[in-house]
Amino acid sequence: MKVLVTGASGLLGGAVARAVAAAGHEVTTFQRRPSGVAGVRDVTGSMTDPAAVASAVAGQEAVVHLAAKVSLAGDPAEFEAVNVGGTRSLLVAMRASGVPRLVFVSSPSVAHGGASIVGEDAEPASPGRARGDYARTKAAAEVLALAAANDDLRVVAVRPHLVWGPGDTQLVERIVERARHGRLPLLDDGAALIDSTYVDNAASGIAAALERVDAVSGEAYVITNGEPRTVADLMGGICAAGGAPAPRLRVPAGVAKAAGSLVERVWAVRPGADEPPMTRFLAEQLSTAHWFDQRRTQHDLHWTPEVSVDEGLRRLAAWYESGQPAL
Questions:
Q1: Out of 134, 198, 221, 320, which one is annotated catalytic?
Q2: pTM as predicted
């Protein structure tokens, strides 16, 4: 197929573009800067530009949509414009061009209201319950995408959870850098059990959803490694791979949530140059269990993860030891 992958300049988007191309498809990417993915055709543009979106979509046979504003803080209008408005423009363009398949890449946060998730499957996306502007707008966009599914447009939503790997600036780099400076806390004792997804597994799962979209249209799936670890264990492994000390600082979860709420209010008025050090959503993520039943995902998508958490940590350590790039 001719497949458009949006957001391919990011860690996961680039991995997905490579996986889809490796499966034999003709890949075009669409994002604000060149993807850096070998063997694909790059088209640059913004999801907030309907004309650019329509141009990228024309002539395609499927779309894998990853482009999004991903942040713990920021202008709510920007989240709305990119995540919801961009998805709406994409759907309009796909209908106009008759593109029949969409894999919408979402997040488990679209159905997370702050309570523990223990062995559950993908619950319906809920913009009203989702925490924070990112999760809220991704939930709204997923609702839009799945509502568009019909005989002419097959749509599946895939929610990779806590993606990490070599070159990750969203999770790994922040954990390692904060640990090196002694600013990485564990909430309570770091015993909350959480799922994560090594980047190659997330990419292969999304590529599998593309192959299965005709059969599973209208469904949403969470993708993980299926190996829950405690927060302390996962953070400690990432720190060790990056040559940083394991976190020793302990902060009560209630204190972190209160501090996160305060930081969010301050950031809304005077945003910092980087991500906020804590938000209420982040405190909830670090102090509550969230791991998922993968049986339906693996059965329906004909997919299983190939890289274990331990193997992923070995690859991450080798990447740091090599002096990096060459992904």
A1: 134
A2: 0.92
